[in-house]
Amino acid sequence: MKNLLSMEHLTTEEINQILDLAQAFENGETSSLSRTYKVANLFFEPSTRTKTSFEMAEYKIGCHVIPFDAGFSSVTKGETMYDTVKTLEMIGLDAVIIRASEDEYYNELLDGINVAIINAGDGAGQHPSQSLLDLYTIKKEFGYFEGLNVTIAGDISHSRVAKSNATALQNLGANVHFLCPEEWSGGFEAHHSWDNLIEISDVIMLLRVQHERHKVNKSFSKEGYHQEFGLTIEREKQMKESAIIMHPAPVNRDVEIASELVECDRSRIFEQVRNGVYTRMAIMETILKGRE
Ligand code: CP
């Protein structure tokens, strides 16, 4: 694997190899890379988890992380993404991890660039490392995907997490259900009320309402959304005993999920963050090994 751009490019075999390697890292295996690779994290959109988690993963597999501050880079003076990444290649980097607001920004990097590209989120497109850590979390919980009912609830149209996970989970044999207000379905066939989704779901994956990507909508009510589409205290009580709650975070507490459910027994929200480090170690190791 030379790059990680979209879950649509990964075979189920490649997904399973990454999940197995993440498990090996969690079990204490160390990196077997043959040299110290130089990498940089280029985040043109805000991030807490993904950026820090990649930095920790890079540190744990022995990479040198070269600081890159997107807000003080020459991109702010109009330099293109291609010229920025080519410049970093000439300086000696082996891989760059990029988050940017433009869908499929990576297409302009596919010809003429010889550093590995890892997509840490492109606009409303894909978020493959989040999807892989979500899959790792589900696999650790259930041991399989086939036949699991996974409900993805929230701002589907703006969610790169929803798109990445839908493709991967369906390919792995899970039944994926979407729930959202009618205007947020983004072309997916979705439920617009919880119907019986609470009772049948093995995984309820809440998504953040992405206020920053919505045009000002004065009629939006956080409380109204919570009651109609959120995971309320009452709904949680109707979940299967074995079912889990997930959320890629950051969380809008009391909007998509009741605040007191964020750390309840069946919530894996902070566990997902922990799993992200092992998964990103596996992603980085796999891609850098491909360059050896
Ligand atoms: N889940 C996720 O991508 O979080 P950050 O925006 O904090 O990286």
TrEMBL record:
EC top class, in one word?
transferase
Q: Which UniProt keywords apply?
A: Pyrimidine biosynthesis, Transferase
Q: Which residues form the Aspartate/ornithine carbamoyltransferase Asp/Orn-binding domain?
A: 146-286
What EC identifiers does the entry list? 2.1.3.2
Q: Is Transferase one of the keywords?
A: yes
This enzyme catalyses: carbamoyl phosphate + L-aspartate = N-carbamoyl-L-aspartate + phosphate + H(+)
Q: Domain named Aspartate/ornithine carbamoyltransferase carbamoyl-P binding: which ranges?
A: 2-139
SUPFAM superfamilies in UniProt: Aspartate/ornithine carbamoyltransferase (SSF53671)
Q: Which residues bind L-aspartate?
A: K77, R160, R208
In which pathway is this protein known to take part? Pyrimidine metabolism; UMP biosynthesis via de novo pathway; (S)-dihydroorotate from bicarbonate: step 2/3
Where is carbamoyl phosphate bound in this sequence? R49, T50, R99, H127, Q130, A249, P250
The family database entries (Gene3D superfamilies) matched by this protein are listed as: Aspartate/ornithine carbamoyltransferase
- Decide whether keyword Transferase is in the record: yes
The entry's family comment says:
Belongs to the aspartate/ornithine carbamoyltransferase superfamily. ATCase family.
- Outline what the protein does: Catalyzes the condensation of carbamoyl phosphate and aspartate to form carbamoyl aspartate and inorganic phosphate, the committed step in the de novo pyrimidine nucleotide biosynthesis pathway.
**Oligomer status and interactors:** Heterododecamer (2C3:3R2) of six catalytic PyrB chains organized as two trimers (C3), and six regulatory PyrI chains organized as three dimers (R2).
Q: PANTHER family under this entry? A: ASPARTATE CARBAMOYLTRANSFERASE (PTHR45753:SF6), ORNITHINE CARBAMOYLTRANSFERASE, MITOCHONDRIAL (PTHR45753)
Query: What is the name listed in the Swiss-Prot or TrEMBL entry for this protein?
Result: Aspartate carbamoyltransferase
